[in-house]
Write a structure and sequence with these properties.
The protein is an alpha+beta fold and 283 residues long. The protein has twelve helices and four strands. It has a four-stranded antiparallel sheet with strand order 2-3-1-4, with helices on both faces.
Length: 283
């Protein structure tokens, strides 16, 4: 049976997507750029808060929050859009990704910072540690262009589709928190966080303490109760629904038409499709 997707407002997830039969899902730079473009569009469309990402040759890590409890819709948009593009560009057919994506709910702030280090270290953790010195591994990590790490440590500008606040807030206030975050992550190059790795591997359903894992397991088994909501902090948000009449009024004002014009079918007119898209997105 397919594993139940646990979705609730404010849920935080560690999502992993892998290539079918472990095949690469990116052939070149153009593919990676296109995936990030699709990721950015899906984040904006579904109101998802993407905390960080890391693209590897045959898999992707995402850490994100869903204020609107819509993980499945978001992932369907991301995976389907990129698969269609990939098959068209490379002349392939069929599935690109291996089965369903994996999504583990994360127990809020208690594990978010450590999870971010685990994900950001992926590009160098796959290397044999005896082949490179600690300094070489750190340099390679800082140069790796296909994760959010460089923008987290100030090596490049922040990305407009990534939400940095919740993770960086755990490094305190001030202008040096990105420097402190870099030191925190790169400390993991010298020594593994065995305690967190044990938590990560303790359950296939959740990342958190024992009580959180038991509660998520109960939900997955169809028992009574709800999954525990991560603790509220000032960064959590929920996306309100907008009244449909307000959406139509705003849309018509920007298009320079009245609502009556939307009721008239016109050949090759984009008025009705635009109005329908705005209603689906905001109302």
């Amino acid at each position: 049976a397919r594993q139940l997707r646990i979705e609730y407002p404010g849920a935080i997830y560690h999502v992993t997507v892998r290539g079918n039969a472990r095949q690469d899902i990116f052939a070149d730079t153009h593919d990676r750029e296109r995936f990030l473009r699709r990721l950015s569009e899906s984040v904006e469309t579904y109101g998802v808060r993407l905390y960080l990402f890391c693209l590897m040759p045959n898999h992707v890590h995402l850490v994100l929050e869903t204020p609107s409890a819509n993980l499945s819709r978001f992932m369907q948009s991301l995976e389907t859009g990129y698969t269609v593009y990939y098959n068209l560009r490379h002349g392939t057919v069929g599935h690109l990704f291996q089965g369903r994506y994996k999504a583990k709910p994360v127990e809020g702030d208690a594990y978010l910072l450590r999870l971010s280090r685990y994900v950001h270290l992926n590009p160098v953790k796959t290397e044999r540690p005896d082949r490179l010195s600690l300094q070489q591994r750190a340099a390679r990590l800082r140069r790796y262009p296909w994760s959010s790490y460089r923008s987290y440590i100030g090596a490049e500008e922040e990305l407009d589709f990534v939400t940095y606040g919740p993770v960086l807030a755990m490094e305190g206030e001030g202008t040096r928190r990105k420097h402190r975050y870099r030191n925190y992550v790169e400390a993991g190059l010298a020594k593994d966080d065995d305690e967190f790795l044990a938590v990560l591997n303790a359950s296939s359903e959740a990342i958190g303490g024992e009580a959180f894992r038991v509660q998520v397991k109960a939900v997955c088994a169809g028992l009574q109760g709800k999954a525990a909501r991560p603790e509220d902090v000032s960064f959590r948000q929920e996306v309100p629904s907008v009244d449909s009449e307000q959406v139509l009024e705003t849309t018509c004002r920007h298009l320079g038409v009245c609502q009556a014009d939307l009721l008239v079918k016109r050949r090759n007119s984009m008025l009705r499709p635009i109005a329908a898209m705005m209603l689906a997105k905001y109302a």
